[in-house]
Structure formats: structure tokens, C-alpha cells
Design goal:
- This protein is mainly α.
- It folds into two domains: 2-80; 93-134, no CATH class.
- Helix content is 79%, strand content 0%.
- It is built from five helices and no strands.
- The chain is elongated and about 100 Å long.
- It starts with a helix and ends with a helix.
């Protein structure tokens, strides 16, 4: 969408800007065409000739058109690329039960280690063991 916007803004600007810029410079210099004295003043100020400015702007707009077309093409290509299908692993209930038992055994073993180290009391151990057996 942005690429199309770039193209549609740049194409009319390519033709309109030279006219507008020339008219602005003519009004600024005080006549229908830039006088030699105005051109010398612009040159002393470091302003390049109007033809050079117009070419620079037009080349920039051509670059904007190319960038817009590239962005549009890239957007079209990414929409056409299909996403990889996700693979769902089917785990039967016996594997789920076995995993849960292994997890409970590990938890019970850790609980016993904590009791042995003195991190929990025997009453805490019994209540936590009861919770693990209910799961």
C-alpha cells in the first residue's frame, strides 16, 4: 500500500515541481526569467543553477518511484508465500500419564531432599506430599 502511495505521489510531482520551482525562482528574482544578476547572487550564496536543482529533484522522484514499485512487488511476493503448516504431535494418553508420573516422582524426590537438608519441616513435607499425590 505504501509503495503504491509513493508511486502515485511521485509521478505527478515529477511533472509539476519543475514548473513550480521555476515560477518561484522567477518571482524571487523579480521577473519572468532569472536575470544574470540574480543568477550571480544565487551562485555567490551557494545555490546551484535552477536546471541543476530541477534535475536533482526529478532524479530523486524517479528513485521514489522505483522504491515504491520495489516495495509494492515485495508486498505482493510476501502475500503469495504460504506459511509452513504446523505439525501437531499426537501424544497418546499412556505417554501423558507416564510423563506425569515421572514429574511427580521428581517432585517427590526434591521434596525429600529439602526435608533432608532441613529446608522444610516434617509436617510441611507430609502436607506437600499429600498435594503431590492428589495431582
Amino acid at each position: 500500500m505504501i509503495g503504491i502511495l509513493f508511486v502515485f505521489l511521485a509521478i505527478p510531482s515529477y511533472t509539476i515541481i519543475p514548473t513550480l520551482l521555476t515560477g518561484f525562482m522567477n518571482k524571487f528574482s523579480g521577473g519572468d526569467s532569472p536575470s544574470p544578476m540574480a543568477s550571480q547572487i544565487f551562485a555567490q550564496l551557494g545555490i546551484p543553477p535552477i536546471d541543476t536543482i530541477i534535475k536533482f529533484i526529478q532524479y530523486s522522484l524517479i528513485g521514489l518511484i522505483v522504491a515504491g514499485l520495489f516495495i509494492t512487488a515485495l508486498g505482493i511476493m510476501t502475500k503469495k508465500i504460504q506459511k509452513q503448516p504446523s505439525v501437531a504431535l499426537s501424544i497418546d494418553s499412556s505417554q501423558k500419564i507416564q510423563r506425569q508420573e515421572n514429574t511427580n516422582l521428581k517432585a517427590l524426590h526434591l521434596l525429600q531432599e529439602r526435608l533432608a537438608k532441613g529446608e522444610i519441616t516434617s509436617s510441611q513435607y507430609l502436607s506437600l506430599k499429600k498435594v503431590l499425590e492428589e495431582v
